[in-house]
Amino acid sequence: MQKLIVAIFFVATLFQAKSQDVVGKPLMWDVVSIKPHRALDDRAMTRTLPDGFEMVNMTIHSVVSQAFPVRSADQIFGWPSWTNSDRFDFRAKMDAETTEAFRKLRGSDSSDMWQLMFRQLLEERMGLKYHVERRELPVYDLVVAKHGPKLKLSATDEQSTSQSSPGWLSVHRTPASGLAGILSGIVGRQVNDKTGLSGLYDIELTWHWNNDPESVETGPSLFTALQEQLGLRLEAAKAPIEVVVIDHLERPSEN
């Protein structure tokens, strides 16, 4: 099964467009193409290119979350009904000068700028209007289980990497807060690090991904695997969270 790179973003507040100051002005796409998906092949695909991206057979629901620093699509409200059914092919490309400027961005500046550019794309092509508010939502707290953590400290010369596929996760040199960020995307709910752990860890986690009701594969659930393999636990809780509320969104016109 193909391994997917998991991106981990750390944000202190929902909208910090500080990357605008890094390059003097927001970067812009040179060419954007959005078309209804008409191919008989129903496989979805996302590919990052040196100068842009390509997304094939994607719902708007699965795309819009890339425009905001949210940990799951559940932090976005006000979806029009068609956003989870109509499917589109997206292609966007930067010119050479913009590509070079984007490559110079590092860390949160890079992720902030990507989200800003994605929001501009949605605003220009789909009339996106939104506002931000705080709502109390279900979350999970990541805590240390009864018998203590079972985490391996990273070697000082290792690089930070993360890979995943359904039912498997491998992360090297990450804090507990980084694991919480990854788990947020897996469980579809914000996970807050409440472990009190301050080290950098190498983490291997496997669990039964029950996505196929006819599957004969067995194994622990994610919740059980966390306790048995890492000595950690997810506790259900509620917390005020900044969310995005969509006020207006139109079907994209074909080009």
Automatic annotation (TrEMBL):
Q: Which Pfam families match?
A: DUF3738
InterPro entries registered for this protein in UniProt: DUF3738
The identity of this protein, by name, is: TIGR03435 family protein
This chain's source organism reads: Telmatobacter sp. DSM 110680
